[in-house]
Here is the input.
Amino acid sequence: MINYLRLFIDLCLFRQQAENIPRSESLLLVTGLVAVLSAAANAAPEEGLIRGLLLSGCQIILFSGMIWLALNFKKKSERWVQTLTGIFGATTVLQLLTLPLFGWQESLVSPDTGQLVVTLPLIIVAAIAIWSLTVMASILRQALEIRIGGAILLVILCQATVLFIISMLIGSPSP
Here is the structure.
């Protein structure tokens, strides 16, 4: 277990290659479930636990499908398990870093204003979100054998499409 954690941390630090991720459907399932739970934990304060789980589960399923389509289009569908395992494991590590920051952000903002206030924790969360995007792009660049710019655009396209579909099916996130 600790070896997998090190692997995912090394992916986040760009010290590990996507090809070194074990091709294990069991590990994919575990990382997918943990990704859903960590995303739901981040969403729970605003969305509630049940809605957070629903949103996170839909996001993982839709994102997985889009990555499968991209890999299949490039005739590299055999890399799907490793690619998603790496993305889910690495992004979970980064999501867990943000959990305490949301509580810190809440304590710095008056609930009366209802406005987004730029604070240090919010800036750190934004930096981690960009870091997460680059980690996903790095993994996709390796899996699809494309340039990093194309991988970044693919991640943004996938995320935007997933958010659009979820908002159409489930509704927009709570204000």
Q: What stands out?
A: The two ends are 38 Å apart (CA to CA).
